[in-house]
Design brief:
Radius of gyration: 25 Å
Helix content: 55-70%
Low-confidence stretches: 1-8
Mean pLDDT: 87
Strand order of the largest sheet: 1-2
Number of strands: 6
Strand content: 5-15%
Order of helices and strands: HHHHHHEEHHHHEEHHHHHEEH
Number of helices: 16
Structural class: mainly alpha
Length: 504
């Protein structure tokens, strides 16, 4: 127990609160990519059905629409818990940034989520109530709402990484938006411009992999002697190729937008990119393998490829960890070009007075390996997608096997885990800050939340999320195994008093 207390700060309220928010965030985001991309892909499937009238596309719409709705419902439940934590565990953070952070989150709830949930409800219940094209427009509106929701949430997070468009109100002791111009600066934050398309395209990797994986698994069953109607085989073959191409296209666009994001991170968060490369000295070389020493002041192993990092980062050399530490001691927080945002400059005297001696470097091991796991898992998902297209070329069908089932399950899960590690990299790489260069993590904790209180809620949430995971997996496996549903052509009822029918 002594070891746990010293090594892992077992009863430190800050550490427990961070673990709680980290667990709930990563768990919640397991549902987010599927919601972001699957909503639009279901809309595409329905569009093809509306244009062609072919029954297989209606069946695919209903099939993957049901899986999308299961995922959406659990995503909403887990997302609400996160907002509770701002008041429960991070009240000082909420007090300090509420004027800024609350604006994009309010827009997310009032505009984006309202649009998303309203039109999704109309889509669910409107198959026999709305004309075909109006009903189709509902799922597109829901998908647009999902994209807007993602954008507003990412705007709030990007501000934490690069706090633009704000000023420090010394009288009230909090951050405030610098008028309309400040709000527009928040919504055009360079990190937001690169992060939003990066996450959206990565989400299409997951959704494409999910469609291809499920369809290819059924295709293998049919080839192994299972009684699968020929019409179903045709539909699964089309969906396999469709999903695999979505995965591949999403991978290419994720790579391109990730390159842009890496260049923005280098300019705006030099400590994050330095930790991601395990670079203790200024360098333009890319790390193949870096292992820091125990106190993270140097390296035990350091294998690099000369010049590659200069290309990725967009600068001749990034600042090394030792340089950043020295500059922070002398001048405080700064970007790659030694500049600061407005609030970083204004709050610097208060920061130096209240929180002297901060180590401005995040945990090197966590940042370094999460960055690489993000790329490795995403790349492996892409390779499986290419392999699926090769196996199913020219009308061929895969053979059923444990290996094939494993690969089909891994195809969506690998990019999903890659996204999760991307978020771990994003958030761990921001440490020791809640708001980069302004508010240390330790300053945001609720003063009335004891370690025991937070630990109890952490245990409750973990058990609850474990139960939700069982429900999610069970429902997914159940409806996946059932395969394509039997459908009838939807007809609009002439009876205005007829009850709405639940389509799923």
């Amino acid at each position: 127990m002594i070891f746990l207390r010293s090594r892992f700060r077992f009863m430190d309220p800050v550490a427990i609160a961070r673990w709680q928010f980290g667990i709930t965030t990563v768990y919640h985001f397991l549902f987010v990519p599927i919601t972001i991309a699957m909503s639009m892909l279901v809309a595409v499937l329905q569009t093809i059905w509306v244009r062609t009238g072919a029954e297989q596309y209606l069946r695919l719409t209903k099939f993957f629409g049901k899986l999308f709705l299961i995922n959406f419902a659990l995503g909403v439940v887990t997302g609400i818990v996160q907002e509770f934590q701002f008041g429960m565990n991070w009240s000082e953070y909420s007090r300090f940034v509420g004027d800024v952070f609350g604006a994009p989150l309010a827009l997310e709830a009032l505009i984006a989520f309202f649009l998303e949930s309203t039109f999704l409800g109309l889509w669910i219940f409107g198959w026999d109530k709305l004309p075909k094209k109006i009903h189709l427009a509902c799922i597109y509106a829901a998908a647009i709402g999902t994209l807007l929701s993602s954008t507003f949430i990412l705007a709030a997070n990007s501000w934490m990484q690069n706090p633009v468009g704000t000023r420090f109100n010394a009288e009230l002791g909090r951050a405030e938006i610098a008028g309309l111009d400040g709000f527009m600066e928040i919504m055009t934050n360079p990190l937001l411009r690169s992060a939003t398309p990066h996450i959206i395209f990565a989400s299409y990797m997951v959704a494409g992999g999910l469609i291809a994986g499920i369809s290819a698994w059924h295709l293998a069953r049919a080839n192994g002697g299972a009684e699968v109607p020929e019409a179903d085989v045709k539909a699964y073959r089309w969906a396999t190729k469709f999903g695999a191409w979505v995965l591949i296209a999403g991978s290419a666009l994720t790579f391109l937008t990730g390159d842009a994001q890496a260049k923005d991170i280098t300019k705006l968060q030099p400590s994050k990119i330095a930790a991601a490369e395990g670079a203790f000295e200024d360098t333009g070389d890319f790390s193949l393998l870096t292992i820091p020493n125990a106190d993270q002041t140097g390296t035990i192993i350091d294998v690099k490829i000369p010049g590659v990092l200069s290309f990725i980062a967009g600068v001749p050399q990034i600042k090394g960890i030792n340089t950043i530490r020295e500059q922070y001691t002398e001048h405080g927080y700064s970007k790659q070009d030694d500049s600061r945002t407005g609030i970083q400059s204004e709050y610097a005297p208060h920061l130096a007075e209240k929180y002297a001696g901060i180590n401005p470097i995040p945990d090197v091991n966590a940042t370094y390996w999460s960055f690489r796991f993000m790329m490795i898992f995403g790349g492996l998902g892409l390779l499986i997608g290419v392999y699926v297209l090769w196996v199913t070329r020219k009308g061929r069908s895969p053979k059923p096997s444990k290996l094939w089932t494993t690969l089909m399950a891994a195809m969506p899960l690998l990019p999903l885990f890659g996204i999760s590690f991307g978020w771990i990299f994003t958030e761990m790489g921001r440490q020791p800050w809640l708001v980069a260069g302004v508010m240390p993590t330790e300053a945001g904790i609720s003063p009335t939340a004891s370690a025991g209180d937070v630990l109890f809620s952490l245990i409750v949430y973990t058990l609850l999320y474990g139960l939700l995971a069982v429900i999610e997996v069970g429902l997914f496996l159940h409806y996946t195994a059932k395969g394509l549903p039997e459908v009838t052509e939807p007809t609009v009822s002439d009876d205005p008093d007829a009850p709405m029918s639940f389509a799923y």
